[in-house]
Amino acid sequence: MSEPRYAHLTAPPRLASWRKRNKMLQQAAADALGVDLASYNAWERGRERPGIDMCAHIQAVTRGYVRLGQWTQDLALDARRTRAS
After folding, report:
1. Which residue in 29, 36, 46, 85 is deepest, having the highest Cβ count within 10 Å?
2. DSSP-derived secondary structure letter, 52
3. Which of 39, 48, 37 is nearest to 71 (CA)?
4. Over the stretch 68-83, which tens digit does the pLDDT of each residue have?
């Protein structure tokens, strides 16, 4: 199995840490963000990245624990990886 596409970002583990610090299951975290469980799970595992508006929403809901910049860092690296594949 290959490495999740966005595993290099710092946001997925921060999102998981925020959820665990708040003693939430993934479903509760998804509900807090207003998304379905599959989307939340994909973000936390680094398989997908939320859109920019959702990144800002996540920053607001987590009170800055997961910052927008943690999702958007390394965008150039993402582009290079995509072109190389």
Report:
1. 29
2. H
3. 48
4. 988 877 555 566 666 6
Question: What gap in Å lies between CA 65 and CA 14, rounded to an integer?
Answer: 7
What the block records as the tokens of 5 is 């596409």
Q: In angstroms, rounded to a whole number, what is the distance separating the alpha carbons of residues 56 and 48?
A: 16
For the chain, give every domain's residue range: 11-84
34/40 Cα distance (integer angstroms): 10
Does domain 11-84 sit in CATH 2.60.40.1930?
no
pTM of this prediction? 0.79
